[in-house]
Amino acid sequence: MNISSGKAETLLLEVTINGQRLKDIVRADRLADGRLALPLDAWQEARLLPPSGVPLHLPDDRLGYILESVPGLTYKLDTGLMALTITAPPAAFGGSALDHGRGGEAPPNLSPPGLYLNYDANVIETNGRYNSYGAFVQGVAFNGWGSAVAGMIARGDRGHDEAIRAETYWQKDLPTPMETLVAGDTISSGGAWSRPARYAGIRWARDFTLKPGYITTPMPSLSGSAALPSTVDVLINNQRRSSESVAPGPFELTNVPVVTGAGEINLIVRDLLGRETVQSQSYYLSPRLLAAGLTDFSLEGGFLRLNYGVDSNDYGAGFAAGTWRHGLTDALTGEGRVELQGERQAAGVALTSLVGKLGAAYGAAAVANTSGAIGGCYLLGLERSSPRGGVSLQWEYFDHNFTQFAFLAGESHPRQNLSAGLGLPLFSRVSAGFNYTSQYTWEGDRFNLASANLGVTLPRSMFISAFASMSVCNGHAWSSGVSLVMPLGNRRTASAGTSRDTDRHTVNSVEVSQSPPVGPGLGWRLRGSDDRSQQGQGSLVWNTNVGSFTVDANEGNDSLALQLGASGSIGLLKGLPFATRNIGYGSFAVVKVGDLQDVPVYLSNQLVATTNGGGMALVPTLLPYQKNQLTIDPAELPFDIEVGGVKEMPLPYARSGVFVNFPVRRTRNALVVLLQPNGEPVPTGARVVVTPGERQFIVGKRGEVYLMDVGDANHLSVHWQKGACQLDLPLDPKGPSEPRIGPIICGEKP
User: Fold this and answer.
1) pLDDT tens digits for range 48-62
2) What is the dihedral of CA 694, 695, 698, 704, to 10 degrees?
3) Residues 275, 191: one domain?
4) 181, part of any domain
5) Which of these, 735, 705, 731, 708, lies nearest to 718 by C-alpha position?
6) Same domain, 187 and 79
7) Beta carbons within 10 angstroms of residue 713's beta carbon
8) Which of 150, 201, 142, 198 is nearest to 173 (CA)?
9) Peptide linkage before 743 cis (omega within 30 of 0)
10) pLDDT for 347-369, tens place per residue?
């Protein structure tokens, strides 16, 4: 549709829509019939939805729409002020989407080649005589291709010593797709109906922990609308979780992070005029569910490992297995698993589903063929968790011919397992829990255990708890106990308790302890009881920068047992040998701050290390796959240091280290007096070129030249109108930062 320029009036207007003013002056057209048209660019800037129909061709050949074509829109035109004020309903605007995402960090920093050795050793003496020792040693070598891990257990007593290989494997983590590849000794997945087992082989699997904070469960989405620019507050169970700004119009908040279990979301929309609207929505979130479209898997194969910790190389039958889980919808997750062995094949499926907003139900069924004997297993379960308490119920049944994965000779065949649990707050400071477990085997063995616990929070953060349990296994056996815990401040805690075991033996005890600090320092524990075997106990923990050392003592049965222990790690990265507390499967960093000694290095604003004579320091206890804030304080650096940055955010792999190089360097200047070979000063205005760097400087009066940012070894080329010369200028690395040198003779240029 076209508008004749002779029948339209062009207006240059300042446009305000629902309280928001457009950035530029808008060229509008008032039609002969009085209707008002705005060009397409103004329409888009205001986020107004275009009306149905073909846009108009305005007199200047631009496209536009008529305001009167929008239902519910009103406007006021002030030709004196050349201002247009528009009021539009929320439905007239385009929608806004605010996606909170599922979390997770960026890809980690690649690890340079390095290695470290974890150790944890102890020796036990009884009445002053050596009794036994034990040690676990684990070596880790790493680079950008992954980590190679090998462990060994050594133990012995006065009559026997042995060394047993633990796990040996290579692992490569792929954080971007959240996948892990392992070759060597590892543990299989169990799925919903099977069970995990140790084996040597290959495993390729999804690993959501490679992106800490990544949320795998379905998260609710909320929608609403706002007529004016507004602030949206999200409250989860009356706790504020986020606050967002939204433009006028409909909006949708997706992937809202909530706590698991049942809860309620309140959406509070507050506009510029202070008016509030509240929307409420209940939800149920189960960690058993995967978000729609999300897949978890594990593919594994190799040889089952037998007698782990007893034999170094005892491997059994080969197998191949695969587990696949997928979020079919946000309310339904499916799983399938297949196990293949020479004499056994098994397959099964599992489903987890929401039951409205009440809870989650899950079930599984599998069948196994073992040398022609076919049997099945079945599983059903229900769970509900909420701020008002939680309940769970699970039932399993196994046919007589069903053989479990990694079944050992002489192992019992399970028949039926039943477990139930209930936890609920009784009052504001009182909570209670009840649990029941029942197990039966096809060999006739049975086990039943019922237990109850009660917890009460007292003033000054004191806590009292009580429990009672009854087991039924060829008779009834009761056990019970009461304990009181009282914080004393400064990491100290006192406790007292009494307990009665199934043999009707009552033990009363008191204990006071101080936990060790995160950094270097001491922790201790003292305990006394009327149990003859444990009449007096004491322990001391000494955390240092190079390791942790422990002393444990136990007096009872007219004997004194003493255990001495040490744990830590030693390693090498980027030429820095180090000793530190046990790294385990964590991460660490070697930090370099130029060549500066005694520079404090901070991790999350806590002092963790100081640099050595080469400007290097070890920072242990980094969090794998997360950003770790490392900083230095420029006020603690020498004044002649040029600082390019004081904060680094390394993101390391697990079982590895990273190298962090702070961009600092010592800047040295020098005032040099240059003489010609005849002893006269180099003429004023001569140019001095310093190599390396090819920087140029101008000679002043009396042959003086001020050289900036020079190194330890410098070559000077000097040029003036009637001559030239050159010389080498070495500087003492430990000399002053601004030396005065000369006068020195500049030799003739060859």
Assistant:
1) 888 876 677 777 777
2) -100
3) no
4) yes
5) 705
6) no
7) 12
8) 142
9) yes
10) 999 999 998 888 899 999 999 99
